[in-house]
Amino acid sequence: MGDVGDFWNDVRAARAEKRAKNREQSTRLLGERKIVFQSFNGGAHLIIEHRDLTVDYWPGTGRWHVRGGTKGFGVKKLLKRLNEEDQGERKT
Asked: What are the chain's domains?
């Protein structure tokens, strides 16, 4: 029975490591693109202020939510959404 417990402990550890890596890489990408954000809870939650948008972003999972607007997953899709705002293609 210990083998099953060890397996799930390994799974949990791998997931935590993946989230930590996502937080690091996503935060770096945002910084490289000069996206302004505030970091909360040790980087687990970022609030991005870009043009007229306020975006809640959880880089560990990739989930993001434009306040009063769209939701999505992934830093690349978030950057695309912010780029659309820069180009005036979408307002919500």
From this structure: 2-86 (3.30.457)
Q: What is the pLDDT of residue 89?
A: 61
SS3 of 66, please? strand
On whether the CB atoms of residues 36 and 49 are closer than 8 A, the answer is yes
DSSP 20-53: HHHHHHHHHHHHHTT--EEEEGGGTEEEEEETTE
Give ∠ CA 66-56-12 in degrees, rounded to 5. Answer: 125
Rg (CA), the chain: 16
DSSP state of 87: T
Q: Which residue has the tokens 């979408």?
A: 90
User: Which tokens belong to 19?
Assistant: 């989230």
Amino acid in position 42: G
Task: Specify the higher pLDDT residue, 84 or 1.
Answer: 84
Treating both helix axes as pointing N-terminal to C-terminal, what angle do 2-32 and 75-86 enclose, rounded to 10 degrees? 20
